[in-house]
Amino acid sequence: MTQPQGAWACDICNVFEYQTVQNGHFFGVFFRQQVQNGYSLADQTNHFFVPVAHPAPVAGARLAHVPVDAPIIVQKTYKDYKRLSHWELRWNYSIRRKVNISLIVPYETNTLHLQEVNERTDQGLVLPQTDTTMQTQGLGDAMLGAEYLLGVDRGVWQFLVKPGFLMLMPTGNYRTQSPAGRRYFADLQPGSGAWSWVFRLNLQYSHLQGYGFFAGANYRWNGIGQQTYRFGKGVNAYTHVFYQFTRGEMRLIPRTGVFFSSTRGPMPTFTKTA
Fold first, then answer.
1. Start-to-end Cα distance in the chain
2. 2-11 core/surface letters (b: 16 or more CB in 10 A; e: else)
3. What structural domains does the chain harbor?
4. Are strands 229-231 and 7-9 parallel, antiparallel or unpaired?
5. Which of 133, 219, 138 is nearest to 179 (CA)?
6. What pLDDT score was predicted for residue 22?
7. How far is Cα 79 from Cα 114, in angstroms, rounded to an integer?
8. Which of its termini does the chain have fewer beta carbons within 10 Å around, N or C?
9. pLDDT for res 227
10. What is the C-alpha separation between 167 and 42, in angstroms, rounded?
11. What pLDDT sits at residue 146?
12. Which of 214, 200, 221 is nearest to 244 (CA)?
């Protein structure tokens, strides 16, 4: 079989923030979905305005988001896509509105569609495939974290600085196999099989009857998983604005914002083993 030695993935799941405006206790069910369309488009230096066509390679462009340890050769096309759907149980406990303790338990469904693929067999043959869709699902890695609240809180409005961390535990499923009995590559699995840490810094201004903003940054360090595989170290940053509509005990908080993510790591090498 073929195994990666010291392989790194470019796919890092991110913790999308949710906080109650008054930093209270909560328990809830959350759903989020990420869609990455057109692997060939990801090779462009301009990520905001790209033509809806198969582009020519650009020298010095960022690498496309493709599986790095799979026994396949991906022919990147604009018809490729990856869809990550997460249901999450989130529990938050606030200690005197100064310390937040959080627990996140995700259930993931990950889908990868590749229009043109050449598959490497164990005998060294290369078999062309078209219109290939792969899907995994199961429990993801549970996250346990804490943050400390610094700043000014006047009850009606507040400005807070919140340093903190998250510990990702190897509780997720990382052994999902294809119908043919071959294990899917690591960056498509719901779990990583590794311990990881996220260091965080968040800023928040909010008013009970008006506008507010939230900004933050995360740095993630990943351990080596059970498949001799490590996800790349990464950073992300985000900011959004929101407005609070209050009617009795109900509160509607629409928001909009931007998100940036970057991951770095060496390319894998493949060795033949018995």
1. 6
2. eebeebbbbb
3. 2-272 (2.40.128)
4. parallel
5. 133
6. 67
7. 7
8. C
9. 65
10. 30
11. 95
12. 214
Task: Please count the other Cβ atoms lying within 10 Å of the Cβ belonging to residue 49.
Answer: 6
Compute how many other C-beta atoms are within 10 angstroms of the C-beta atom of residue 271: 8
- Counts for the chain of helices (H) and strands (E), in that order: 0, 18
CA distance 19 to 104: 13
pLDDT averaged over 10-residue windows placed end to end, the chain, 274 residues: 40 58 81 73 45 44 47 62 88 90 93 72 60 86 93 82 93 85 80 90 85 90 74 83 84 85 54 32
Q: What are 274's two structure tokens?
A: 């018995």
Of the candidates 215, 217, 208, the residue with the CA atom closest to the CA atom of residue 247: 208
Return the number of other C-beta atoms located less than 10 Å from residue 65's C-beta. Answer: 20
pTM recorded for the entire structure:
0.72
Q: Which of 143, 192, 145, 189 is nearest to 168 (CA)?
A: 143
Q: Which residues contact 136 (CB under 8 A, 6 or more apart)?
A: 108, 109, 110, 173, 176, 184, 188, 189, 190
* Interatomic CA distance for residues 113 and 134, integer angstroms: 6
Return the structure tokens found at 106: 């995700």
pLDDT for the residue 133: 82
Residues linked to residue 270 through DSSP beta bridges, in sequence order = 4
- Give the SS3 label for residue 266: coil
Q: Cα–Cα distance between 145 and 166 in angstroms, integer?
A: 4
CA distance 80 to 223: 29
